[in-house]
């Protein structure tokens, strides 16, 4: 298992959590995603290594800003 923790800096509501979680769950091998609305702290657990660029690009396409 691989884990990646980062921050999504522009979350504003529960809908943001749903969209970002669903987006991250589409990445290959992702098993779990947890996003904290208050802090933007996001944690992904995956069966295979996670490319941070893939994470950033997927979220950027939905309008979110990622900080590693």
> Which sequence of strands runs across the widest sheet?
2-3-1-4
What's the CATH class label?
Alpha Beta
What fold name goes in the CATH topology slot?
Alpha-Beta Plaits
Distance between the termini: 19 Å
Query: How many strands, what sense, and barrel or not for the largest sheet?
Result: 4 strands, antiparallel
Tell me the structural class. Answer: alpha+beta
Q: Note the run of SSEs as H and E.
A: EHEEHE
Number of individual domains? 1
Strand % is: 25-35%
Q: What's the average pLDDT? A: 96
Question: Considering DSSP H and I runs of 4 or more, what fraction of the residues is helical?
Answer: 25-40%
Q: Count of helical segments?
A: 2
What is the 3D form? globular
Provide the CATH architecture.
Answer: 2-Layer Sandwich
* Poorly predicted ranges: none
Primary descriptors:
globular, alpha+beta, Alpha-Beta Plaits, four-stranded antiparallel beta sheet, 68 residues
Q: What does this protein structure show overall?
A:
This protein is of the alpha+beta class and 68 residues long. It has helices at 14-25, 52-61; strands spanning 2-8, 30-35, 41-46, 66-67. Strands 2-3-1-4 form a four-stranded antiparallel beta sheet. A hairpin with a 5-residue loop joins β2 and β3.
Give me a quick take on this structure.
By secondary structure, this protein is α+β, with helices and mostly antiparallel strands.
Map the helices and strands.
Elements: E1 2-8, H1 14-25, E2 30-35, E3 41-46, H2 52-61, E4 66-67
Antiparallel strand pairs: 1-3, 1-4, 2-3
């Amino acid at each position: 298992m691989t884990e990646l923790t980062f921050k999504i800096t522009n979350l504003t509501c529960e809908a943001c959590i749903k969209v970002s979680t669903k987006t991250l769950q589409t990445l290959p091998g992702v098993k779990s995603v947890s996003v904290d609305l208050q802090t933007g702290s996001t944690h992904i657990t995956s069966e295979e290594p996670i490319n941070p660029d893939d994470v950033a690009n997927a979220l950027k396409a939905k309008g979110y800003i990622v900080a590693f």
